Amino acid sequence: MFATVVQRWQGGLLRVAQAITGNPAAAEDVVQETWASVLRSLETFEGRSSLRTWVNRVCTHVALARTRQDEREPVPDAPVVDPDRFDEHGHWREPPARWAEETPEALAVRREVMECIERTVARLPVRQRAVITLRDVEGFSAEDACEILGVTAVHQRVLLHRARSRVRAECERFYRGAA
Amino acid sequence: MLRCVEFVEQVTEVDEAVSRPVVRLWFELHRIACRHCRRYLRQMRVVRAAMGFEPGPIRRAAR
Questions:
Q1: ipTM, 2 dp
Q2: Domain boundaries, position B10
Q3: Residues A97 and A158 in one domain
Q4: At what angle do helices A2-21 and A51-67 cross, to 10 degrees?
Q5: Residues A27-70: tens digit of each pLDDT
Q6: How many domains in chain B?
Q7: Do residues A31 and A59 both lie within one domain?
Q8: Partner B, chain A 151-170, Cβ-Cβ below 8 Å
C-alpha cells in the first residue's frame, strides 16, 4: 500500500521539490526526508485535506526550509506588463506579439518554448515557482495550493498571477527573438 | 469601461472565477471589443495549459 503511494506520487513530489530548491539532487533529498517525515507523523494527519495535499504540504515545507530564503518574501507591487506598452489612455501602444503556436498542444511539443518556460519558472521567486508548479504543472486546486503553501487565497492568486504573467512575457520575448 | 492596462491585471482573478460580477461583465465586454487583449488572454491560457501537458521538459525533469 505505502509502496504504491510512493510510486504514484514520487514524480509529482520531485517536481515540486525541484521547483522550490532549483536543484535535482536537493529535490531527491527533500522527497526522501518528506517520506520519512510522513511516516513519523502519519498519526497526526487529521483528514482535513486529502492525503496527497497533506504529503505535498510536508514536501513544500521541507523544501522551503532548505532554500534558506525568507518565506515571507514580499510580492512586488509593480504592474505585470510594462506600463510603457500602453498609451496615455491605458490602451495597447505595443500589443502582444503573434505567436507561431497558438494552442497548448502545439506549444507543448515545441521544445525550445517549453525549455524557455522551464528556465523562466526556475528564475521566479521561490513562492511564485512553487505556486505555478502546484497549480499549472501538478494540477492542484487553488484551495489545495493554499493549504500546501500555508498562504491565503488572495496571496496565492497574486503569486500565481505574477508567475503566469512572467512566463507569458518570456514566451513573447522568445517569439520576438525567433521572428 | 475596463482599459487594456486594467484588463491584463484581471486575467487571473477572472480565470479563477473570484472576480466580482461587475468586473467580470466589464472584462467580457472589453474582451469582445479588443483583439489585442483577446490575444493576451489566449496566450496566458495557452501557456498555462501547455505546462500541464505530457510529455514536456517540465514534467520530464523529475523522472
A1: 0.88
A2: 4-53
A3: yes
A4: 40
A5: 999 999 999 999 998 888 888 889 999 999 999 999 988 886 54
A6: 1
A7: yes
A8: 153, 157, 160-161, 164-165, 167-168
Residue A1 confidence class, pLDDT cut points 50, 70, 90 = confident
Mutation site, B43, B59, B60, interface A, largest A CB count within 10 A: B43
> B61, A81: Cβ pair inside 8 Å?
no
What Cα–Cα distance (Å) separates residue A148 from each residue in A32, A66, B26, B47? 18, 16, 33, 23
Q: Are B48 and A164 in contact (CB under 8 A)?
A: yes
> What's the predicted TM-score (pTM) here?
0.86
Nearest to B12 among A99, A160, A171 (CB): A160
Distance to chain B for A138, nearest Cα, Å: 7
Residues A104, A56, single domain; the answer is: no
pLDDT digits (tens, 9 = 90+) for A115-170: 999 999 999 999 999 999 999 999 999 999 999 999 999 999 999 999 999 999 99
Tell me whether residues B51 and A168 touch, CB distance under 8 A: no
